[in-house]
Amino acid sequence: MGACFAPKQAFRKFLPMFDRVLVERLAAETMTKGGIMIPEKSQAKVLQAAVVAVGPGSTNKDGKVTPVCVKVGDKVLLPEYGGTKVVLDDKDYFLFRDGDILGKYVE
Known about the structure:
By secondary structure, this protein is mostly beta strands.
């Protein structure tokens, strides 16, 4: 489990360390269900994201690696604040600790 996952070429340049998770926020809703366009300033901050890369996990007191709870491709719920912005190939991604992710969507 010591290897990090890198699904795309861009992420071979950047792999999260320890229990860090790299996510890409999902696009904001630009139209209501009724078909009304939402101005950019009125759009809510998107708290849903897709996991694009994960670190191997954190090391506990016994020296054993505790794996990350999410995997590449999972859709997750993020906290409203936090995370570190990372720009790769002119796209914005965010780096969170595994423990900061609030939940995972299941289908």
